[in-house]
């Protein structure tokens, strides 16, 4: 790996000053866990980095449908190193359920970076979440999931609906002892690996649409030990090969109702909030992997008689990396912090929970944009080598391209953003909350005023027109939130973040080119 990656074998936590500053600001117990994250940073830079490259290039999961006796088993065969690593990393899901915080879990996920590997851990976590909060009678299964003895999955998507959960057709029938599900799940992450899944289905007599869905816990095996569902096939994906994604068939599949059948869509959306935060953390983790490779490259590579990082346009690109990475990461952990304070709530939720969900939509959408843009830039900064799959850099762009799609693409985030905005009361209150750290920021008043006007106009529009404009307003609010998060971070982490906040405001809200003073300020672009 040393021959094909600059980042391999380095400590991915120790090198990441931005992560350390963000965690120290948003996580009150960070100091108690810094040594643990330092140890994990070494694992992320060696065992994780090596294994995910190996899986992507040499050993993707393979579906084994029958055993030697011809019996249907539908199991994914993983590389031994892949399977061993997944089991060894199971502990990253424990913190929230052992009295620790979500900051800890998502810091681990960010350091892993690889979205395929982290997806398996995330969907396992989501099943543990549903059991922990709404089905404690299955605590034994939760412990198996948290200990690495079992893997979980979330199966919601169906071919006729995609992100439109209200179009789901999987049915649920209670036979007097257990529920039985019938239907197909079209994009089922963890297919062939899953021991316990959560799945949406519509009980007999329930209304159409999303509010008619209930949430069920589905074990791989029936009570009699036979296979409880079938895996039709695994998907041939551009990336995220470390998670076997496939198609799952339910046919009188045994299942257990989670909580109240009438609240299934709320439980499902809670799980989506967890996975959207994971998506944001993972997206910024991908950015950091690409940045580690880039920073080593621009320091060692020379062109036109100078090191790459001495060229003005390289510094301009590194400035874009720094602004987007710090802004996206600060917003992500602000959203995580809000969720950590509200995640114990149950429906109906308080404004505090809705605010956490609101920030989640902002973070999920904009971090995915940053990841796709910056990993493409990273390839460009490597030149021709950046397009070669044999080296480490090209894969990160392929991996980044899933982050705008998973857990609801930007159109779905915009619709959910619009819905949540209307639940939060007066739009000015939301913007005032977001923009509070910008009171002393130069040139921020105009940006805040413009975003406030856009939000007010959005709230006043007829629904079709509001939907038309929702995505652009979401991104404007997200950009305001990122600039604000950077100013908030400057309160504890110093002047560099105020500079990054100024740059974020000018570039993304005033829509100006980065000012040339940044060329002379290595604290902006050359901090590693």
TrEMBL record:
Pfam families: Acyl-CoA_dh_1 (PF00441), Acyl-CoA_dh_M (PF02770), AidB_N (PF18158). Residues 153-252 form the Acyl-CoA oxidase/dehydrogenase middle domain. The keyword Transmembrane helix does not apply. InterPro entries: Acyl-CoA_dehydrogenase-like (IPR052904), Acyl-CoA_DH_CS (IPR006089), Acyl-CoA_Oxase/DH_mid-dom (IPR006091), AcylCo_DH-like_C (IPR036250), AcylCo_DH/oxidase_C (IPR009075), AcylCoA_DH/oxidase_NM_dom_sf (IPR009100), AidB_N (IPR041504). Its cofactor is FAD. Residues 9-148 form the Adaptive response protein AidB N-terminal domain. PROSITE patterns: ACYL_COA_DH_2. The keyword Lipoprotein does not apply. Residues 264-418 form the Acyl-CoA dehydrogenase/oxidase C-terminal domain. Keywords: FAD, Flavoprotein, Oxidoreductase. Coiled coil: none annotated. PANTHER family: ACD11 DEHYDROGENASE, ACYL-COA DEHYDROGENASE. Belongs to the acyl-CoA dehydrogenase family. This is Acyl-CoA dehydrogenase family protein. It comes from Alicyclobacillus sendaiensis PA2.
